[in-house]
From TrEMBL:
It catalyses: (6S)-NADHX + ADP = AMP + phosphate + NADH + H(+); (6S)-NADPHX + ADP = AMP + phosphate + NADPH + H(+); (6R)-NADHX = (6S)-NADHX; (6R)-NADPHX = (6S)-NADPHX. Pfam families: Carb_kinase (PF01256), YjeF_N (PF03853). GO terms for biological process: metabolite repair; nicotinamide nucleotide metabolic process. Its EC number is 4.2.1.136, 5.1.99.6. The lineage of its organism: Bacteria, Bacillati, Actinomycetota, Actinomycetes, Kitasatosporales. This is Bifunctional NAD(P)H-hydrate repair enzyme. Signal peptide: none annotated. Residues 10-209 form the YjeF N-terminal domain. InterPro entries: CARKD, Nnr, Ribokinase-like, YjeF_N_dom, YjeF_N_dom_sf. Keywords: ATP-binding, Isomerase, Lyase, Metal-binding, Multifunctional enzyme, NAD, NADP, Nucleotide-binding, Potassium. (6S)-NADPHX binds at residues 58-62, 123-129, 152, 270, 324, 372, 440.
Length: 499
């Protein structure tokens, strides 16, 4: 499990550690790790042209100390000081003592010519996008020939949310200290970070190795304070441990039956795609209820179809409702039946528009909502752009309002439980997944995992993981249709289980 912590949590852990270390000791650790990654990025340090973009806080101090190390190894190091009078004094002295020099903030040419640009404008203390004086430097770094290494996080990215208000540095590599920050894992910030390298500076966040310990919410650190991760990203091994596997005594019913209430005369394809996902999600059988039975059977003859209402379809262990359902009376009846059932329900697409909030909140069994940003915006009375800017806040707000687990789709997929706790983030997707019907496949897949017995948070996050991985396998650099994603789900399972 990869975890990210809030800025407040990281700062508190830093304070505790700083008290135990000599003055400047923590920054020297950070700078040493940063210099190692810079050296790797350069390949050959001796004779390289290194430019440091130095802001007025400790982030600039890290850059200056790392620059001093590179200068001692024979690099030509120039520090562009954005506020010369406020630059980190000890860092600047170390750089000058090591033979480095300074340049004026207007000198974008030196940035353009550098082999390596180290972005130390702002770290976790940054607020808002880059200020105007820093923008030309960030642009020059992007346009120049050198590799860009961001210190702690790309300047201009909000550490807590990934929001980018205005411009931000585009890094090839980000060297982050002590713990991942949410802004490195959530778009748009994630898109600015490049490859993220975590440097251990000895912070104690109460996090041990292995997924079990990481998963304990409110795990206690040395000071006795509860430390809860802000975000969790499942890794291969975590997903492998969650996947339902048939045992010797399994039969199709014991593996779980998933019901799919989807499709309409107008949108039969959505039913076919949801069933396609459901058949590959680990349930032993898929029941289909609705008006697209002929289309479903034609493509997937193994489906148990019924043309009546979901309440007449027979026993299932979880329902998927919504894709292509439409909004007529029959759609409302189907949704009513499904919500009245005592099994977990995944609601997607039209079901999200039709559902009454109190009906969802009042359910005894778990509910998983899977909106994309547009659907989330209409549920929250907001607009799509705002949801995409502040995904973390949006998914938490929805989970709390609906008393349900919410999976917010998009370039970054986030899954939040109604009880709070760490939000899951999934990064296996690819922009090739932005294709019509891909969400229908996900709803079937995650619903099938629910029917097989996973809880809503695990079903959503393991489903999103497999879905993204399947898309990567299917696309492999070329456009794909949603059915290709469904076809590649077994490849993704094998990939995860191969560990
Ligand atoms: N704490 C520790 O133990 C350790 C911390 N470490 C390092 O310290 C970093 C945190 O340092 P920090 O707290 O000094 O804040 P930092 O990120 O440098 O930025 C604040 C400065 O930037 C300015 N500024 C703000 N917004 C801006 C904007 N949009 N555009 C431009 N400028 C802006 C703001 O100026 P002001 O608002 O006062 O005018 C203020 O002066 C952390 O990320 C890590 O790298 C490591 O060494 C490990 C040990
Ligand atoms: N830029 C992107 N990068 C990665 N995944 C994406 C991107 N855009 C969309 N997706 C994923 O593609 C799927 C699209 O689902 P959705 O928006 O519901 O489409 P549809 O309604 O056509 O099925 C979701 O799983 C979403 O997370
Ligand atoms: K930075």
């Amino acid at each position: 499990m990869r975890t990210a912590y809030s800025v407040e949590t990281v700062r508190a852990a830093e304070r505790r550690l700083m008290e135990a270390l000599p003055d400047g000791g923590l920054m020297r650790r950070a700078a040493a790790g940063l210099a190692v990654v810079c050296g790797e990025a350069l390949g050959r340090v001796y004779g390289a042209r290194v430019v440091l973009l130095v802001g007025s806080g400790d982030n600039g101090g890290d850059a200056l100390h790392a620059g001093a190390r590179l200068a001692r190894r024979g690099a030509g190091v120039t520090a562009v000081l954005i506020s010369p009078e406020r630059a980190h004094a000890a860092g600047l002295a170390a750089l000058i003592a090591a033979g480095g020099r300074t340049a004026d903030v207007s000198d974008t040419e030196v940035v353009r010519r550098a082999d390596l640009v180290v972005d130390g404008i702002t770290g976790i203390g940054g607020r808002g996008g880059l200020r105007p004086e820093a923008v030309p430097l960030a642009r020059a770094a992007h346009q120049g020939r050198g590799v860009v290494v961001a210190v702690d996080l790309p300047s201009g990215v909000d550490a807590g949310s990934g929001e980018v208000a205005g411009e931000a540095v585009r890094a090839d590599v980000t060297v982050t200290f002590g713990a991942y920050k949410p802004g490195l894992l959530i778009d748009p910030g994630r898109g600015y970070a490049g490859a993220v390298r975590l440097v251990d500076i000895g912070l104690d966040l109460g996090v041990g190795p292995g997924p079990e310990k990481d998963r304990v919410p409110g795990h206690s650190d040395h000071s006795g304070q509860a430390v809860t991760a802000e975000l969790e990203a499942l890794q291969y091994a975590d997903v492998a441990a969650l996947l339902p596997l048939p045992a010797a005594e399994s039969d199709k019913y014991r593996r779980g039956v998933v019901g799919v209430a989807a499709g309409s005369a107008r949108y039969p394809g959505a039913a076919v795609l949801a069933v396609a996902g459901a058949l590959r999600g680990g349930a032993g059988a898929v029941r289909y209820s609705g008006h697209s039975a002929d289309a479903v059977i034609a493509r997937y003859p193994e489906t148990l179809v019924s043309g009546g209402r979901p309440s007449e379809a027979g026993r299932v262990q979880a329902w998927v409702v919504g894709p292509g359902l439409g909004n007529g009376t029959e759609a409302q009846e189907a949704l009513h039946d499904v919500l009245a059932s005592d099994v977990p329900v995944l609601m997607d697409a039209d079901a999200l528009h039709l559902a009454d909030r109190d009906a969802v909140r009042g359910r005894g069994a778990p509910t998983l909502l899977t909106p994309h940003a547009g659907e989330a915006a209409s549920l929250l009375g907001s607009d799509r752009a705002e949801i995409e800017r502040e995904r973390l806040a949006a998914v938490r707000e929805l989970a709390s309002r609906y008393g349900a687990t919410v999976l917010l789709k998009g370039s970054t997929t986030l899954i939040a439980a109604p009880s709070g706790g760490p939000v899951r983030v999934n990064a296996t997707g690819t922009p090739w997944l932005a294709t019509a019907g891909a969400g229908d496949v996900l709803s079937g897949l995650a619903g099938s995992l629910l029917a097989a017995g996973l809880d809503a948070l695990d079903a959503g996050s393991a489903g999103a993981y497999l879905h993204g991985l399947a898309a990567r396998h299917a696309a492999d650099g070329a456009p794909i249709g949603a059915h290709d994603v469904a076809d590649a789900i077994p490849v993704a399972w094998r990939d995860v289980r191969a560990l």
